[in-house]
Amino acid sequence: MTENAFGAIELGGTKTFVLIAKDRSKIYSRKIFPTLSPKQTIMDISNFFREQTNTFNVKLKSIGIGSFGPLDLDPESKTFGYITSTPKLEWRFTNLKGNIENGLQTPVVIDTDVNASALGEFQSLLDQDIDCFVYITIGTGIGAGFIVNGKLVHGLVHPEFGHIKIPHDKRIDPFIGICPYHQDCFEGLASGPALEERWHISPNLLPKHHMAWELEADYISLALMNLICTISPQKIILGGGVMHQTQLFEKIHRKTRNLLNNYIKSKYLEDHIHELITPPQLKDNSGILGALDLAINNSR
Q: What is the CATH architecture of 3-112+284-298?
């Protein structure tokens, strides 16, 4: 007898994760491959699902996608499910949802990669009575997924936290930033590619005590101060490749608390900031498991 299964896709700027599962506890197969051109990547995704459904004799009931953006998430729009004005030029105005849905003849639900990561992590926090939560990824790009009153936040389009403007003292940091739209927005100053462009070396090769990490912690802390003052989250998770530099957390805790300067009274800011601002519980699986949650929720 053929069982129902669910597909999950985490489409990142450099890597694509795919997974097929019955649920979180029964994963049939998963794979990672490079994010290339839209045509090649969508072909790789489709081939994976065709091969694995045959191998495990399962039928895909729904597929969840967490993708880099910006995305058009308005169901009434002619370009619903498209990647829109992304800095990845060859991916601009790619009909991601439609191409995968039509190619595999399977319903697809799509959201941003960070919303998928937020959902994945939030599902692991259900026993902590948290209903205002933020997941921030700092890697190839910077983005944030927000859950407020237990629900993912959308709106005009979706949050683009990576493109907020933060103070940039060019006497200390003359780097102009790399964002093709805003130059020195948060992403333009603090993403992985910004670190590499500024210091002329891969961030992974920078020594732990390099001055780059103090500057990086400054920018992240400025962004977190704005975030805490705006939506007052009960938990902030910092993920993405840059945050594999775990020495950043202590610096971010200290600098964020100093910037707030005792204005907001909370035990989590005063004595337990390490419980407020944390690494992901699911490590690098937040996005792909969140995409799986999207698919499962879409079938209910």
A: 2-Layer Sandwich (3.30)
